[in-house]
Amino acid sequence: MNKILEKEHFSEKVVRLVVEAPSIARSRRAGHFVIVRSGDHGERIPLTIADADTDRGTITLVVQAIGESTSKICALEPGEYLTDVVGPLGQATHISKVGTVVCCGGGVGVAPLLPIIKAMKAAGNRVVTVLAARTRELVILEEQVAEYSDEIIIMTDDGSYGKQGLVTDGVEEVINREKVDMVVTIGPAVMMKFVALLTKKYDVPTMCSLNTIMVDGTGMCGACRVTVDGKTRFVCIDGPEFDAHKVDFDEMMMRLRSYN
Ligand code: FES
């Protein structure tokens, strides 16, 4: 059982939870995720660790209420417990000094992007972050992202905040004005697909973090399988990060739809 210590609403359906998990807080690195359950028969929900505090022994998770299980998790209040938190899982992000890194996130994808932004900055990179959302209300973690970014560009579909346009418009603007050495993209599969198509055109290495359905999180059930560079890979043990230019996003989206 893992106690919830803090809760903050980013929007009606997106909450930030600070959860007691001392051993995970100690061993996690950027890119790692956990699988959480609320209730003994709750679905197993994979969530990237957005932040951790080793002194307090806590991890921070950002959860979007989409179905029954995520709604149940979002309804938990400080003092209540998650039934279990398993992790850290997956491969940590490979962080190095490459020069200028454009980190782009859409919707709740900004939460898993935050630890990567922090780590890329700490490694000495120039970090330009592009945050995208449908409307102003759905832009999350702007302050935290701004703290570790050299520049932040906000794009909204309806132009209610920042510039009007898609995440790809923001990324292309940066690529057209300066040398970009790497792009990191996290968000809905369709968004990552189009970021990958754009950066391929400009030949900029691009890393994505995939958000497939997961069940066991240990490479045994096959639920998270994706095709990368023509080979079957498991997001839970081989990922969640992959070369975005090699991911078969169409197949991934088809599999996600079949689960729906
Ligand atoms: Fe089962 Fe990855 S979640 S193989």
Folded structure, characterized:
- By secondary structure, this protein is an alpha/beta fold.
- It folds into two domains: 2-89, Translation factors (Elongation Factor Tu (Ef-tu), domain 3); 100-259, 3-Layer(aba) Sandwich (Rossmann fold), CATH 3.40.50.80.
- It contains eight helices and 17 strands.
- It has helices at 22-27, 68-75, 110-122, 142-148, 167-177, 189-201, 235-238, 249-259; strands spanning 2-9, 14-20, 33-37, 45-48, 51-53, 58-64, 81-82, 84-89, 100-106, 126-133, 151-156, 163-164, 182-186, 206-209, 225-228, 231-234, 241-243.
- Residues 214-217, 219-224, 234, 236 line the site of FE2/S2 (inorganic) cluster.
**Residue fraction in strands:** 25-35%
Structural class of the secondary elements?
alpha/beta
> How many β-strand stretches?
17
Characterize the biggest β-sheet: 7 strands, mixed
Number of helices: 8
Shape descriptor reads globular
Looking at the chains present, what oligomeric state does this protein adopt?
single chain
Spatial ordering of strands, largest sheet: 12-11-10-9-13-14-17
Low-confidence stretches: none
Going by CATH, the architecture of the largest domain would be 3-Layer(aba) Sandwich
Order of helices and strands: EEHEEEEHEEEHEHEEHEHEEEHEH
Give the CATH level 1 class of the largest domain. Alpha Beta
